[in-house]
Design brief:
173 residues, alpha+beta, 35% helix, 24% strand, globular
C-alpha cells in the first residue's frame, strides 16, 4: 500500500515546490515594459490621505514609507507585494491611462494558490479600472483553492490603479 501512495505523495510535494519561485525578475519586467532603458523610478510617499486610502484598499497599513514606480501620469509600472496566506506575492503591474494594461506574478512564495500566475487568470485584469469607491470596475473570477492569492492580486491591482492617480503632476511628460 505504501509503495502505491509514496509516488503520489512525491508528485504532490514536487508540484508544490515547483509552484514556488521567481518567474521573472523585477528588472526584467521593467525592461520588458519600457524597453532596454526604463525610466528612473519615482516615489509616492505613504502619508496623509495616500496612507489612509492605501490602508483602506489593503486592509492594513502598507509596510513601507514609500512606493516606487516607473513612468509618468500616463503610463506607469509598479512592483508591489501583498501577503497571500503567509508569504508575500510579488507582482508587476502596468497602468496605462486609468486602466490596467498588464499584471504579472513575478515571485510566488506560497505553497498554494500558484495558479494565479497563469494568463488564464491574469488576463482578466486587462483593461480594468476603478470605480468611484475604489473597487475594480469588473468582476474577477476566483480559483478554487487559491482564494487568498486571488484576493492579494485584486488588492494590488486596486492599489496600483489608485497610486497611479496620485503620481505628482511634475512627473508628467
Amino acid at each position: 500500500m505504501l509503495t502505491r501512495i509514496l509516488p503520489l505523495l512525491l508528485l504532490l510535494a514536487w508540484n508544490t515546490a515547483a509552484a514556488r519561485g521567481t518567474y521573472q525578475e523585477p528588472v526584467d519586467f521593467l525592461a520588458e515594459t519600457f524597453g532596454s532603458d526604463p525610466p528612473a523610478p519615482g516615489v509616492i510617499w505613504m502619508r496623509g490621505d495616500v496612507r489612509d486610502t492605501t490602508t483602506d484598499i489593503l486592509g492594513h497599513r502598507y509596510p513601507s514609507l514609500r512606493v516606487r514606480y516607473w513612468g509618468d501620469r500616463q503610463r506607469s509600472a509598479w512592483i508591489l507585494e501583498e501577503i497571500g496566506k503567509d508569504q508575500p506575492i510579488t507582482l508587476g503591474l502596468v497602468v496605462n491611462g486609468e486602466r490596467l494594461e498588464r499584471i504579472k506574478v513575478l515571485v510566488f512564495r506560497e505553497s498554494r494558490g500558484w495558479e494565479v500566475r497563469h494568463p488564464f487568470f491574469t488576463d482578466q485584469f486587462q483593461g480594468i479600472g476603478l470605480t468611484g469607491e475604489l473597487a475594480l470596475d469588473h468582476s474577477i473570477d476566483g480559483i478554487s483553492g487559491a482564494t487568498l492569492s486571488v484576493r492579494a492580486l485584486k488588492k494590488l491591482a486596486r492599489l496600483a490603479l489608485y497610486l497611479h492617480t496620485v503620481i505628482p503632476a511634475n512627473d508628467s511628460p
